[in-house]
Amino acid sequence: MTELPSCDVAIVGAGIAGSALAAALSGRGLQIVVIEAQGDERAVLPDALALESFDPRVVALSPRSRRLLNELGAWQAVADYRLCAYDHMTVWDAEGTGSIDFDSADVGAAALGYIVENRALVGALLGRLAACPDVRLLAPESLAGCERAADGALVLTLASGAQLRPELVVAADGAQSRLRDLLAFRTREWGYGHHAVVATVQVERPHQTTAWQRFLPSGPLAFLPLPSAPDAQYCSIVWSLDSSRVDGIQALQAGEFCAALERAFEGRLGRVLGCSRRFAFPLRQRHAVDYVQPGAALVADAAHTIHPLAGQGINLGLQDVAALAEEVLRARERGEQPGSIAVLRRYQRRRKGENLAMMAAMEGFKRLFEQPALPLRWLRNAGMRGVDRAGPLKHQLMRQAMGLTESGTLE
């Protein structure tokens, strides 16, 4: 076995969360290794505005997440490429008249959020890491094993045969985390019985920099605004469907799919004129019982996954990153080891409650809108109308989702 040069922190996964964590820890006297199974080449970012030129995977970033990415030196590259800020959100119930409208002007903000292509954000973060002399990216490289030595230290064995003994190892390798499994972190999880179909679509009418979401009995349907041209309007769609319906929807010809999508969306943006290649993936809720153990921590999807109906998954993950980086750097200033369980438990205390609260809220929304009983349909529609009219309550919900304080400033 070849033992690589010592490192303080090893991060498994160079996606958004892993790369953001490495950037957050850089420049503070730590030696950081990032292990990524995929190659280290950044995706080519096409300039054209066309159906197939958009990444089908997009993220909805809150203003708080934007601030973090700006502090990490990654935001400008995203903004220089392309994104779509949205300042309005419209949510309505397919089984009634209930609806809610959110507008950034109501809380004195420039935008509710930003729709960014996944590959653009990952590329910006990898570009940032390339300029960090204290970050070593091992790619393509995968994790073959992880064992605890007699002295309690974790020893990582890589597919190449090399070994690492970091003071702290972080699982940022996604919902199917290999490191989480190797370290036997327990999780609570269940399937939603839904799949999400994602694609880029061209619509007839301008999207008005608005995020649209319709709650159907089969699951929510979201149209998220993308950069558009005067003669071509684009949206990214996330259509949550009962798993039994997915194969049938995916088998439709493009024109048939566009017609079905247009009906499901009530034609709010006119005709659906075209769609890109479609992808479908199962939806599952998962939460680690603990995020930490001596020398190891979980962040983002490795720690928790939630229903995408509010687009909060990536924002929760980036706040995990910010909290863990703060605790590790604070520990270093105090002369504590970054893998100390006392240090890591401080991170867990900061994040677990907020993540659980958001997961519970999303589960509640999902179950509420699935109920076909007339009294429940009446109550949820009356509730939506009530919240829409209750300015202070609606504004508080907006501030929470955006990461704003009561005064309207970012937390």
What's the layout of helices and strands?
Layout: E1 2-3, E2 9-12, H1 16-25, E3 32-35, E4 58-61, H2 63-71, H3 75-81, E5 84-86, E6 88-93, E7 99-103, E8 113-117, H4 118-130, E9 135-138, E10 143-148, E11 154-158, E12 162-164, E13 168-171, H5 178-182, E14 187-203, E15 210-216, E16 219-225, E17 233-242, H6 243-251, H7 254-264, E18 272-275, E19 279-288, E20 292-293, E21 296-298, E22 304-305, H8 313-334, H9 341-370, H10 374-389, H11 391-402
Parallel strand pairs: 1-12, 2-3, 2-13, 3-9, 6-15, 13-21
Antiparallel strand pairs: 4-8, 5-8, 6-7, 10-11, 11-12, 14-17, 14-18, 14-19, 15-16, 16-17, 19-22, 20-21
**Helix share bin:** 25-40%
Largest beta-sheet characterization: 9 strands, mixed
Class computed from helices, strands and strand pairing: alpha/beta
Characterize the overall form: globular
Task: Indicate how many domains the architecture comprises.
Answer: 1
Overall pLDDT, averaged? 87
Q: Brief description of this entry?
A:
Helices cover 35% and strands 28% of the residues. By secondary structure, it is an alpha/beta fold. It has a single domain (2-189, 284-402), classed as FAD/NAD(P)-binding domain.
Structure description:
- The chain has 411 residues and is of the alpha/beta class.
- It has one domain (2-189, 284-402): FAD/NAD(P)-binding domain, CATH 3.50.50.60.
- The protein is built from eleven helices and 22 strands.
- Strands 6, 7, 14, 15, 16, 17, 18, 19 and 22 form a nine-stranded mixed β-sheet that branches.
- Strand 10 and strand 11 form a beta hairpin.
- Helix 1 (16-25) packs parallel to helix 4 and helix 8 runs antiparallel to helix 9 (341-370).
- The termini are far apart.
- The model is unreliable at 373-388 (pLDDT under 50).
